[in-house]
Automatic annotation (TrEMBL):
It holds the Pfam family ABC_tran. This is ABC-2 type transport system ATP-binding protein. The keyword Nucleotide-binding applies. The keyword Phosphoprotein does not apply.
C-alpha cells in the first residue's frame, strides 16, 4: 500500500498561545482503516480539520493523494469526505436535494443512480423527499454521511460518527465502512467507543496533548501491550497470602474471595501449572477460574497514564 495522506512535522499554535498540535508526522496508507484515539482536547479534531482544509496549519506539510493541502487546495479537498461531530444541514431542503447539491459543490456531474444507491445503503431511500427538519437525529446523521460520500471521495474522515446514535445506525455505518474499504477508500475515524476501534481498525494512533505518542498495527499493539491475567475464585476467603505464594505476584481481590495472577501469554512458561500446584500444597481450594485479556480500552487508558 502507498500513503494516501502524508503528514510531516505538522504543528498548530493558536493566537491565544495554546499549542493544539506539536510536530505530528504520520503516513496513512491507501485502503486502510485508521483509528485516532485520544481524550477530549488532545488535538484530534484540530488534526482532522487541518487535513480537510478547515483550519490553517501553523507549520509542517500535509499531502493528500500527492496534493499539498495549501497549494493544491481544490485537488486535495476533492479527495476527502468529512463527517463532522456537529449536525450541520439546511433543515428546509429535502434529503435528495441536499445530497445531490453536495455532490455538485465538488464539481461532479449529476449521477442519480449513484445517489440512489447511496441513500439505499444508508436506509434513507424512503426519506428521499422528506425535509431534513422532519428527520430524527439518527436520520440526520445518515444524511451527513451521505453528503460526505456524495462526490465519491478516496478518503473518508469520521469524527465521532456514532456519538449519540442508535445501535441500528452504528451497525449500518460499520457495514458501510467495510464496503468502502473493499472499494479502496481510506477511512480515518475518531471515536470514544474504543471497542469500535478495536473491532474495525487496521492501525491505531494515540494522541495526547497535541503529540502523537503511538502509531501501531492493532494486532501488534494488542500483542505487545496486551496483558493476560488469571482470575481464581476461592472456596474460602484468604485474609493474607501464605509465604509460599508471594513469588507469584498474586493480588487479593473481592475481599479475599479471589486472586488475580498476571502472566505473559507469549511466554511458554506462564507459571500457571506451578501456581496451581502451590495453591494445592497450601490447602487453598478453588471454586472457579477464568482468564482475561486486556482490551484496547485497557491499553489506551494505560498509555495515557504512563506515556510510551
Amino acid at each position: 500500500m502507498s500513503a494516501i495522506i502524508h503528514i510531516d512535522q505538522l504543528g498548530k499554535t493558536y493566537s491565544s498561545g495554546h499549542t493544539a498540535l506539536s510536530d505530528i508526522s504520520l503516513d496513512i496508507q491507501e485502503g486502510e482503516i485508521f483509528a485516532l484515539l485520544g481524550p477530549n482536547g488532545a488535538g484530534k479534531t484540530t488534526l482532522i480539520s487541518i487535513v480537510c482544509g478547515i483550519v490553517n496549519p501553523g507549520s509542517g506539510r500535509v499531502l493528500v493523494g500527492g496534493h499539498d493541502i495549501v497549494r493544491d487546495y481544490r485537488a486535495s479537498r476533492g479527495l476527502i469526505g468529512l463527517v463532522p461531530q456537529e449536525l450541520v444541514n439546511d433543515v428546509f431542503e429535502t434529503v435528495w436535494a441536499t445530497v445531490s447539491f453536495s455532490r455538485g459543490l465538488f464539481g461532479k456531474k449529476p449521477n442519480p443512480a449513484y445517489i440512489e444507491q447511496l441513500l439505499k445503503e444508508l436506509s434513507l431511500w424512503d426519506k428521499r423527499d422528506a425535509k431534513l427538519i422532519e428527520l430524527s437525529g439518527g436520520m440526520k446523521r445518515r444524511v451527513m454521511i451521505a453528503k460526505a460520500l456524495s462526490h465519491e471521495p478516496r478518503v473518508l474522515f469520521l469524527d465521532e460518527p456514532t456519538a449519540g446514535v442508535d445501535v441500528e445506525l452504528r451497525r449500518d455505518m460499520w457495514a458501510m465502512v467495510r464496503r468502502l474499504r473493499e472499494r479502496g477508500v481510506t477511512v480515518i475515524l475518531t471515536t470514544h467507543y474504543i471497542e469500535e476501534a478495536e473491532e474495525m481498525a487496521d492501525r491505531i494512533g494515540i494522541i495526547r496533548k497535541g503529540e502523537l505518542i503511538l502509531v501501531e498495527d492493532k494486532a501488534v499493539l494488542m500483542q505487545r501491550l496486551g496483558r493476560k491475567e488469571l482470575i481464581l475464585h476461592l472456596k474460602e476467603p484468604l485474609s493474607a497470602l501464605p509465604d509460599s505464594l508471594v513469588p507469584f505476584r498474586l493480588e487479593r481481590i473481592e475481599e479475599g474471595h479471589g486472586l488475580r495472577y498476571p502472566f505473559d501469554s507469549q511466554d511458554e512458561d506462564s507459571g500457571i501449572p506451578r501456581l496451581l500446584t502451590a495453591l494445592a500444597a497450601a490447602g487453598i481450594e478453588l471454586r472457579d477460574l477464568k482468564s482475561k485479556e486486556s482490551s484496547l480500552e485497557d491499553i489506551f487508558v494505560s498509555l495515557l497514564k504512563e506515556g510510551v
